[in-house]
Structures are given as C-alpha cells and as structure tokens.
C-alpha cells in the first residue's frame, strides 16, 4: 500500500489520503487472499497433469504427441467457452460465475482418476477446459470493479503470484502424493493425485458463494463512506479514458485489441510450454528421480515470485508498463535460446531454465496491467475475454507442437528456441502497437502534471 499518498487521483480533494489508504487496505484484505487461494488451486489442478504424465503414460500407453494433443484439447474447450463465460458473468455476477467454475473443475479433476484410455484422456481434458473457461479474465475484470490503476498492478501481481506459488509447491506436492499414497483405495499413484488435489476446489467453490459480492455497493463490510471512496476513485480514473469503445463492433474493429492479444499469445506460448513440459525437460537434463524433478521444477517459480514483485512494484511506481514488459520478455527469450547450447551442463541448464521461466511468468503479470489501462470500462468484459482467447490459442498449438517436435527429433530444445523467437516478436509488438499516450495511467499522469503546473501558476500569481 506504500505509495498511495503520492498517487491520489484528482477530484478526491474532500477525501484524505489516510482515508483512501485505509479503505483500500480493507478491500485488499477481503478480496485478495481469497482470489489468491482460488488461483493457486486452479493452477495446481491444471498443471498436475505434467507430473501425472510421468506415470500415467505407462498405464495408458500415451506418447508425447498424444499427451500434447490432450493438453491442447483442454484449451480448445477453454477457448470455445471463454467469451460466453465472461459475457455471462456480466449478467449473473462474479460470485455465481466463480462458484460454478470452481465446483465443476474440481469435480472433473477428481473424475480424471477414472481415465482408462487415450480417448477418455482427451474427453476429460476437453471438459476440464470447458469448466475453467472464464476464470482468469473473470477475476481480472472483477479487479477493475474494486481497484483503480495505481493499485491494480500490485493487486494483479499478487493474484497471479498464486500461480507461481502453485508452481513452487506443485512439483514437490504432486511427487510426494504420488510416492506416498500409491495404492490408497486401490488407486495408482497418478489417480490418487487427481482425487486429492480436486477436492479443495469443490470446497472453496461452495465457500465462494458466501464470501464474495459482485460490486462495492453490495459490500456489507464497507461503510457508506468507504463505498463512496471506492466509487469516486474509480469514476475519477474512468473520466480520463476519452471516447468509449463499448460496442461489440468497436472492440473487434480495434486493431490494437487484436495486437495486444497476439502479444499475450507470445507470452502464453512460453508459460504454457514451461508449465506442461518442464518435468520432461528436466529429465532431458539427466535428472531421473521423480522427487528431484519435483524440487528442480520449483526453481523457475521461485525466481518469478521475486522478479514479479520487484517488476510490478517498479511498474506501478513509474506508471510504466510497456518497456517493463518488453525487456522482461527479452530476458526470457535469450535464456530459452541458449538452453540447447548448454544441454550437457546440468547447472547451466537449470540456471537458464530458472531465469527464463522467471522472466516469462513475470511478463504474464506485467501484461495484464495493460488491457484494463487501454480498454474503456464498458468494453472491458468483452475486450479482456477476447484478448485472453487470442492469447490462449497458443495453449492449443504449443503443447501439441512441442510434443510433435520432441517425438520427431527426440529433443525438446529446438521447440524452446522457437518460443524464444516468439517472445522477441511479442516484445517488439507491444512497443510499436501500444503508444504510452493511450494508457489511462499516462492520461492521469498528464492530468496530475497539468494540475501541479496550474497550482504553481496560481501560487505565483497570488504572490504577485
């Protein structure tokens, strides 16, 4: 919360900085821990397949290519229902939407333990994707209902940090469950993994109904004065957006929206490849023990946890998004492109994977500060969903592509070089396609500077 005093929007002269600080602290403590835990469970349940694959491939006779196809099918289901889910959220509210999503994905994760063939593996991965559709863009949209831009970068980073915490704990947790509970209730190690990790999502989904409210004006835990502070903070920011881009046609006819989505596609190609292929890549390094693979897989997420916080704090402090994002993507690209050159050196391979993975996950967080800063309030639901759909196309293509490359060549390093090239392309695209003058923060900064200049002129006149 440090820094809010220096970032108070204009138009709130009747509300003190201390009041604003206290109000948003209250909102943060109510909302952020909950969405953090929800996203942590979401990522754990989404990526546990990468560790289950190490064992279920033997039982189901899954090739690397078939595993890649199954992973892609998850995102096909996700993409088909992404925009409908986010648009339906506007009708029924965030509380009902998140309750539905979490309960369904938890149940289907548990049912993954019943998979008996490649076909049923494909079916369940598709259905889990359908169930999860709209979760991340729904939360990103939800944050715009509660937090102005001078807080949203840090709040978004905390939310997305849950994915990194999930990455840190998922490897050791998944491999511990598989090693410890193999044979529990007559289930194989990978089956137990799905059952144990699916139950918490169902329970938290039910809790969602009783904990969340859709808008600040519905929050019984805020006083009337606090609701007004939140409302005025958001209204003041939205006055700087200029012409509304609210209609369906305006969102889809705006080329910048599509270019933002392409940038996310580049980032998502990297994070998705790391998420689903990192255990296999670590095996390529020469690590064979499943527990050691789990521990090593935590390192990129630990790196990302630190870099994400520092980068998002810097981005909020300077109200600068584009260069923070582009340079972070460049670091990830260089690290991935060098992996093939050091493949016979375990230490250097792990170091490059750690730096590259950390940079890519940090880039994903920095990226999500840009769409809400560009889109108008009325266009945000559709725009954010569409950007997420465009980006998530990478998740359909990249797992199958990596699996095919590895099956055909016997090596995964060429695939990581391609991902590095995509990151370079995405970094250049965001700099060229999104001038800083179009972002709300820059408009606010200009307004603040103009106000300060006017105040100085008035003060000088008074002194005369």
From TrEMBL:
Keywords: Membrane, Transmembrane, Transmembrane helix, Transport. It is found in: Membrane. The keyword DNA damage does not apply. Residues 31-438 form the Major facilitator superfamily (MFS) profile domain. It holds the Pfam family MFS_1. It is a multi-pass membrane protein. GO terms for molecular function: transmembrane transporter activity. It comes from the Bacteria. Its main location: membrane. CDD domains: MFS_ExuT_GudP_like (cd17319). The chain crosses the membrane at residues 27-45, 65-85, 97-115, 121-146, 158-178, 190-212, 257-278, 290-311, 323-341, 347-368, 380-405, 411-434. GO terms for cellular component: plasma membrane. InterPro entries: MFS, MFS_dom, MFS_trans_sf. PANTHER family: PERMEASE-RELATED, TRANSPORTER, PUTATIVE (AFU_ORTHOLOGUE AFUA_6G08340)-RELATED. This is MFS transporter.
């Amino acid at each position: 919360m440090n820094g809010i005093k220096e970032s108070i929007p204009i138009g709130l002269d009747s509300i003190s900085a201390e009041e604003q600080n206290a109000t948003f602290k209250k909102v943060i403590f109510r909302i952020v821990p909950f969405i953090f835990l929800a996203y942590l469970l979401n990522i754990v349940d989404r990526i546990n397949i990468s560790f289950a694959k190490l064992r279920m491939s033997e039982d189901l006779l899954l090739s690397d290519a078939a595993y890649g196809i199954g992973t892609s099918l998850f995102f096909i289901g996700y993409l088909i229902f992404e925009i409908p889910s986010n648009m339906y959220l506007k009708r029924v509210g965030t509380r009902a939407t998140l309750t539905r999503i979490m309960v369904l994905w938890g149940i289907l994760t548990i049912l993954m333990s019943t998979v008996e063939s490649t076909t049923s593996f494909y079916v369940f991965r598709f259905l889990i994707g359908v169930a999860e559709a709209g979760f991340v863009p729904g939360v990103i949209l939800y944050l715009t209902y509660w937090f102005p831009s001078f807080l949203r970068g840090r709040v978004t980073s905390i939310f997305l940090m849950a994915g990194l915490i999930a990455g840190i704990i998922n490897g050791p947790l998944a491999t511990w469950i598989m090693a410890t509970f193999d044979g529990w209730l007559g289930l194989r190690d990978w089956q137990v993994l799905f059952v144990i990790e699916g139950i918490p999502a169902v329970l938290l989904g039910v809790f969602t109904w009783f904990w969340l409210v859709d808008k600040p004006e519905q929050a019984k835990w805020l006083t009337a004065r606090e609701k007004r502070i939140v409302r005025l903070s958001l209204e003041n920011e939205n006055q700087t957006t200029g012409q509304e881009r609210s209609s369906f046609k305006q969102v889809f006819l705006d080329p910048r929206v599509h270019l933002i989505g392409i940038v996310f596609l580049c980032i998502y190609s990297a994070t998705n490849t790391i998420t689903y292929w990192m255990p296999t890549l670590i095996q390529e390094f020469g690590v064979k023990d499943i527990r050691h693979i789990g521990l090593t897989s935590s390192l990129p997420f630990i790196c990302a946890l630190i870099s994400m916080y520092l980068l998002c704090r810097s981005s909020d402090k300077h109200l600068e998004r584009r260069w923070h994002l582009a340079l972070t993507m460049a670091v990830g690209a260089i690290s991935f492109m060098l992996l093939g050159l050091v493949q016979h050196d375990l230490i250097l391979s792990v170091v490059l994977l750690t730096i590259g993975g950390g940079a890519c996950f940090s880039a994903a967080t920095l990226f999500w500060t840009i769409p809400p800063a560009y889109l108008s309030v009325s266009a945000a639901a559709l725009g954010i969903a569409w950007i997420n759909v465009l980006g998530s196309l990478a998740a359909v293509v990249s797992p199958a592509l990596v699996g095919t490359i590895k099956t055909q060549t016997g090596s995964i390093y060429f695939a990581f070089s391609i991902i590095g090239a995509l990151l370079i392309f995405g970094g250049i695209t965001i700099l060229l396609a999104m001038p800083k003058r179009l972002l709300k923060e820059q408009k606010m900064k200009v307004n603040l500077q103009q106000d300060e200049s006017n105040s100085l002129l008035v003060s000088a006149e008074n002194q005369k």
